[in-house]
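[job 0412] stage=complex_fold ligand=NAX status=START
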Amino acid sequence: AKEPVRVLVTGAAGQIGYALVPMIARGVMLGSDQPIILHMLDIEPATEALNGVKMELVDAAFPLLMDVVATTDAMVACKGVNIAVMVGGFPRKEGMERKDVMSKNVSIYKAQASALEKQAAPDCKVLVVANPANTNALILKEFAPSIPEKNITCLTRLDHNRALGQLSERLKIHVGQVKNVIIWGNHSSTQYPDVNHATVTPTNSEEKPVRSVVADDNWLNTEFITTVQQRGAAIIKARKLSSALSAASAACDHIRDWLHVIKDNGQLFRVRLKIDDFSREKMDATAKELVEEKTLAYSCLN
Ligand code: NAX
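[job 0412] stage=complex_fold status=DONE, emitting structure tokens
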């Protein structure tokens, strides 16, 4: 039998955590033959809720789940972890300044980076989900220097999957028939969902560029983009809660595909793409926002 893999989920008592831990324990992230030891971290006020989640994991009797560590101590939570999914963070509350939220998250990610730095398995793979996801990942990288930079990532897979969903609804085809959609930039409403390199393989036909199959550049350049950018807000409006099952599922997709690529050839690889003026403008705008976030985050460190 395979050695168990230790998977950390921070913010495990929250809504994404509640959707994510059973997926991991069922093998959705690492495969149906991979035993798992789940490490769950949350903060003191969530202790009881966290224990409740642990009780349900026990009750679910997952065949792959070898053990559960549920704790409010980051040093304990990070011990020996091979994969760390960072979902815990400080949410923006009404009336709060951007700088105050940033400052809270910078200190959380600085502390958790140090815990990972000291305790995680060598070659631990990190996925940051908590917002501001890109910037939290940057802070984590800064304060966990022994974790290889390429091992620290943040979640934009949900945005990617949302883009596939929109195209598949529009074209009345399955999501699996669309590929090579790209999300550039920040996981925020400035993100740029780019279909210029994407293709569709319609049933009984060969692969074609998305633009030629959709045949409506106006829709692709306006409504499609804003729908993907604003999808998180639309879910909140409908559910009165933010996306959780789709976020958890995307986190599993992200890790599964990442490990698969590593198994195949050991490295992520770069591709050379032609970028048109429309894309350039959108990419510059979201890059500008990322630089602003970075500056704000660093100002919180002082
Ligand atoms: P919840 O508020 O339901 O859960 C967050 C959990 O984190 C809570 O249980 C809280 O106690 C815990 N927590 C807070 N500080 C912590 C700390 N220092 N250490 C450990 N745990 C801590 O939020 P949920 O809906 O689960 O969302 C979690 C995060 O994901 C948010 O930051 C949210 O903005 C972000 N999202 C990111 C997405 C992405 O695509 N990158 C999409 C979904 C989601 O909005």
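Residues 277-301 form the longest helix (25 residues).
[job 0412] exit 0
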